[in-house]
Amino acid sequence: MMDIHLFSTIYVGIIGLLVGSFANVCVHRIPRGESIVSPRSKCPSCNTEIAWFDNIPILSWLLLGRKCRHCKTSITWRYPLLELTMGVMWASIVWFYPTEKYDPVFLTQAISLVTLLWVLTLIDLETFLLPNALTFPGIALGLAFAAYFDFFIDSLIGTVAGYGIFWLVARLFLMFTGKEGMGQGDFKLLAMLGAFMGWQALPFIILLSSLTGAIIGSAFLMLANKGLKAEIPYGPYLAAAGVIWFFWGTEILNWYQQFMGLT
Ligand SMILES: [Zn+2]
């Protein structure tokens, strides 16, 4: 008999693959303001509708030899990559979550947050946008989970403070440099992280994302030799810092308190 933990992991992983397939549609259509429910997916080259049997995550891509069945244009590797990462992330959340305090609501919260952040990251990398169509529902979802887990006030403060802090930083940056630093989307993404995790998460997220953003960003600029004019999306750093705090925040806080001799 199959172990229930392994079974749940595989089951949720497969759902993750399917949602990854839908996430591809979101990444493509949301920044273009198109509907994510209709019409059916089409080949971007020949516009032929993609049949369900050619739309099975990863498998279809491999079976079709990475090409469209009709026009033979190659299909970008980003589609199966997104499906695979989504499946792996969903499965890992179930696999590594301690089963003795198994709570399906927590799993749903973790999976929603990781999925939203991953889709936002990919959209930001491609278009430099963090669409309201994702961040607004994300904020609402974060507040709803917080209400369920009894930290609604912390979550509400986190939402307002998340937006407010970045708004203020952007205003000051504009005042002193005359340039736009962050985008409005970044304010709303930090608000969403504050909603999901409460205001306590904000110092770590702001610190880690700005540090990694500065380090990786300047390394990238040097390698790409584009000078300081190149635009670098900040969303992915916020998303990564958010995920780290969500899963390991308590450990990080304990470690920090020990390190500072506070306990
Ligand atoms: Zn085609």
Key descriptive features of the protein:
binds zinc ion
Per-chain topology:
Blueprint: H1 4-29, H2 59-63, H3 78-96, H4 104-127, H5 132-148, H6 152-177, H7 184-197, H8 202-224, H9 235-259
Helix pairs in contact: 1-3, 1-4, 3-4, 4-5, 4-9, 5-6, 5-7, 6-7, 7-9, 8-9
Residue share in helices?
A: 55-70%
Sheet with most strands: none
Distinct helical segment count? 9
Mean pLDDT: 89
The structural class is: mainly alpha
Inertia-based shape: globular
Distance between the termini: 46 Å
Ranges where pLDDT stays below 50 over 5 or more residues in a row are none
Strand content: under 5%
Following the backbone from N to C, one meets helices and strands in this order, namely HHHHHHHHH
Could you give the count of β-strands? 0
Taking Cα atoms only, what radius of gyration do you get, to the nearest Å?
20 Å
Report the bound ligands by name, code or SMILES.
zinc ion
Can you walk me through this structure?
The chain has a domain at 148-263. Helix 1 packs parallel to helix 4 (104-127). The chain is built from 9 helices and no strands. The longest helix is centred in the first third of the chain and has 26 residues, at 4-29. It has 263 residues and is mainly α. The chain binds zinc ion.
